[in-house]
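Hey, can you fold this?
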Amino acid sequence: MAASALTTLVQEMTVVQGTTIAQGTPLQVSPDRPTPEVPVAKPLSVLKLDLKKLQETLDRNDIAGAIQDVEVSWKQQYENYYQGKFTTRLLSADQIGYSLNRVAQLTGKKAALIYVIPTPEHLELLLVPPDGQLSHRRVTAATRTRLTETVKAFRSGVVNAGSQPSDYLPAAQQLYQWIISPLEATLKAQQIDTLIFCLGGGLRGVPIAAFHDGQHFLIERYSFATIPAFSLLDQHPSRLAGTKVLAMGASQFQNESPLPAVPVELTTISQLWQGESWLNQDFTLAKLKDRRSASSFGLIHLATHAILAPGTAEASYIQFWDQPIRLNRLRDLGLNFPVVQLLVLSACQTALGDPNAELGFAGLAVQSGAKAALASLWSVSDAGTLVLMVNFYQRLKAAPIKAEALRQTQLAMLRGQTRLQKSAAKGGIAQRAVASELLAAANADLSHPYYWASFTIIGNPW
């Protein structure tokens, strides 16, 4: 079969071994009112941080107080969007620093938390490193108008596989100068290697991995993750040794475009890790729950369309074979008991630029109950997704944290060290319609940010 031959092809790709970490108390979500039958987008005024109060707090040099305000406000944003209450404890800035220091001792990876808060007149940056010494930088050149224009130019260049570096690098460098450069001396002095971004509106759908300092992409210097709020983060790292994967997906759909690489994606992943794979008619919510009740799967891989649309959480969904699972019903997947270490959505597509869709993306891990999620901001080519996913799972076996496993995978693609090989034509695959798109991309240059910058760890990076 085509899937069998393609599995052989994937195994011929250049790969490097890697691992991840994670385990702890799952976040619980409880609905506080019934879901409306007709999706109605929340007024954006409900979702806004009190920027005047924030500026006054920062002008008093009360960075810890400002962090508390942001944590409370952004937690409320996600509760409004997901129509539920997240039962988590609000952490102080001191407690956040203590947590980062504890995890650094456990993992050997030093992470810093960066709040990036756009305002009409400037950009506020708040840094919490493991030693707890808070920093604040105000970037007056990054007005909301300039920031929005720059983000739009950056995104439009990166999401186009045919674009030239000149189409996205100027904006990538400007964003690096505004968001990373003001903090870089502190990051270097403390030997930070992992960044945790807590991003404000308009920035939650930005492909941070492709920020550029003039010589290197951000991903060449740091591994990173994005989070909705630190108080919503499951902070407990653990090793994935012995964890099994439940890989499920669909290659054909009634109302969506086909995903021809899904059969080989599922087969290969379930071979790389001990686990199971279920395709098409077997890709149902009932089957997922049945297999989760029979055996503990710490990794859940869903190779299917996941659409994060404008409007309420009910407008967005993950497409199973027999039904869409709406974003506000993600907890129906039951990933919080036993807690899933990583939920992977390999064909996720976000309405970039829409604030509600970006809220949905940033809150995927929290809402699902999983410790973390790996998802894409835009739909990447089938071949590119296959290459990235197979390499990621290889590296997940030995990397110190899962964010580093993703970074190593993205670097391999950036440097042209892994791609589908010419041997794709072996075994008569070329005659199979299911493999035509993969064969066309057999020698594609996957170094363009379009192929690797879309994928992001959301939630616990450890």
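Oh, and this one too while you're at it.
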Amino acid sequence: VNFYNELDKFSDKTALITENSLAIDYKNLLAVADQIAGHVEDRCLVFVVCQNSFESIAGYVGFQRAGVAIALVHSNIDDDFFLALLETYRPKYVYMPKEGQIDGIAFESVFSFENYVLLKSLKTVEYVLHRDLNLLLTTSGSTGSPKLVRQSYKNVDSQVVALAEYLEITSDNRPITTMPMSFTYGLSIINSHFFKGASLILTDASLVDPRFWSMLKENEATTFGGVPFIYEILKKLRFGRMKLPSLKYITQAGGKLNNKLMVEFAQICEEKSIDFYVMYGQTEATARISYLPCEYAQTKVGSVGIPIPGGKMWLEDSEGNQIDSAGVAGELVYQGDNVTLGYAEDYLDLAKGDENNGLLRTGDIAKYDDDGFFTIVGRAKRFLKMYGNRINLDEIEQLVTEQGYDCACSGEDNELVIYLTKSKEIENIKSYISTKMKIHPSGVDVKYIKKVPRSESGKILYSELA
């Protein structure tokens, strides 16, 4: 059962608070949502161009309740990439802001709500949608690629149940948006809080915009989530000095937070009586795989914790054998109902069923300690051989970041390349890493880069490094 069809029970509770401080209850949200989706004729594919707004959320909720397949993309998507996705997947409808444009494909407007419009394709292609297919999302690794992750109704339902359990979400929660809803982490916050009848505070304002903090304080937000980049901003904004009495807990996911920042925020949160949850996941697991219970935030620094409720984690060596010893690195494997159906590369793939059967090889290398807590040590593909020794590019990035510099690392065997945003520190960093990692300086090339390229979720875009 899709839980979105059961939201009517929260009728009079506040569902959304908009940037104009308009409070919209579930009854009104569902009335608008059902009206929008009522113009979609049958089960088909709908593309939603997302913003953190009433119109965007209402469309998403309506399409969920109507049982159509939904592809989510962010409103700042590159025009050419958007067009390529539309040509690859041939959706019957697109729901998007009115100011957006679609060139080269014929659509007609069938309904509009506020500043959003529902467009119907004039050249439809008939293809099969698998009955379990609920969502299509881009992955952090598929920027510019038409490959999308296929998520099922069971995936989404199992994920919200797990999140609500370990985060103890109730209808009294008030999360404020800090990420796009098209990003799996941002969407998981929306889904799990609607599941419990909570109130979402909607804003597209960034954390450096005073409007964000005004909305948080005026509407008494109880929680927000952030990728590592958001925590770097919070540090610069001196989060520790802010008076935010309504905040009950904050979460971190979407990439590894460096240990120094993790310690700092764990201490700040303890002082402020805010629970701090570090989490780990992938789009391929409908967002969340593991979490570090907040009481371990200072004693298990760097750890991604334990599996979410209903999930299992273990490590395998290069031969596929399960690792039974603490402290030994291997590929992290996850099993759970939230493991997605697989990928799609065009509309013909939307007929496919479950190709993963609840099992996900994450591609992350991890260890576990004597208490069964896991720590990610790097990506399987993010290792180089330097003169016979295996080095971890993610570890080197962490070392440089802990020195206070933004960087990105790439390269090939015997040639490590560090992209640094501080030109005056090139020689210092080269010397530091050569010494620390015991690599001959001739194998380390430190290059100046004006800005580290990042995705909308803050992850480094390695493909864009020169």
